[in-house]
Amino acid sequence: MRASEFALLHAPTVDARLLLSILPSALLAGLVAVLATIVVERFGGVVGGVLSTVPTTIVAYAIGLHGQAATTDDFRRALAFVPVGILLNAAYLLVWKWLPPRLHALGIKRLLVSTIALALTAWIIVATALTVAHDAMEPSVERTVLCGILAMCVGLALALAATRRVHAAVRGTHRVGMFTFVLRGVGATIVVGVALFISRSGLPLVSGVVSVFPIIFTTVMVATWLAQGSQVPAGAAGPMALGTLSVSSFALLAAWLIPAYGLTEGATLAWFVSVGFVSAPAYLYLRSRQRHLKGVHTPLQPEQVPQ
Q1: Are 83 and 252 in contact (CB under 8 A)?
Q2: With left for phi above 0 and alpha for psi between -120 and 50, is residue 262 left, alpha or beta?
Q3: What is the pLDDT of residues 19-73, one digit of tens each?
Q4: Is the CB of residue 83 less than 8 Å from the CB of residue 251?
Q5: Contact between 57 and 184 (Cβ < 8 Å)
Q6: Which among 212, 252, 213, 86 has a CA at the least distance from the CA of 156?
Q7: Mind giving me the DSSP string for 61-79?
């Protein structure tokens, strides 16, 4: 009896410590998601377009992972596998671009539900298959990094193909409601918290993929769909897929820079390099593509999304 009583009393203490170690980074991710979205919405135009491609919640994940990962190799594996999740996010976004025109006969509500169900189901199935297959091969850290680089290259090719003809997406006229902001913050908190918990369980690859689960993208797509119609999220899908490559860049750089230079210096350097060499060029590329459209003066995206 004494042993069981001790176990019952001891278990909550362990859980509480684990929760307290994860909670700060998870809450930081939620706060960053909300604040970044507010800034993007307020500035709009050129500034908003640049801010939309800046890594945000992934930084909070990297900070939390630095304290949760059992070893440096696990830390690097988790971040190096993030680009695989980003590649899946690009495909997820393009489902919203490709599917609605082909199923428009379903009606608005049924079409929205069908798009969400298909996109999320496909993401989960493919993410699970890739993670299991990669883990079964028991690759070295270097091969996991190579896999991440390959995923980023494929994502770049996919995003460039999707933005080859940049359509003049209709700009939304409704401001984002407080409920949507709260959903994004809560979603980011849950995703990062779960990812950090998984990393603590010794599953770095799963943690890396889960950290970029497209819950924020889903809230954006649903909110803009309901407020503006299916054409608005469809027009944003390609540019958003291209912009999120900066998250892949940050993850790959941080996997090596943080262990080498420390958390603050490594994360800062990875962030600035990703913004300067991925986010800004992506935005300039999209602007140059839009100039080929006659009479188009609308901002790049109807709604920008932090990651």
Answers
A1: yes
A2: left
A3: 666 777 677 777 777 776 665 556 544 455 556 668 888 998 999 899 888 899 9
A4: yes
A5: no
A6: 86
A7: HHHHHHHH-SSHHHHHHHH
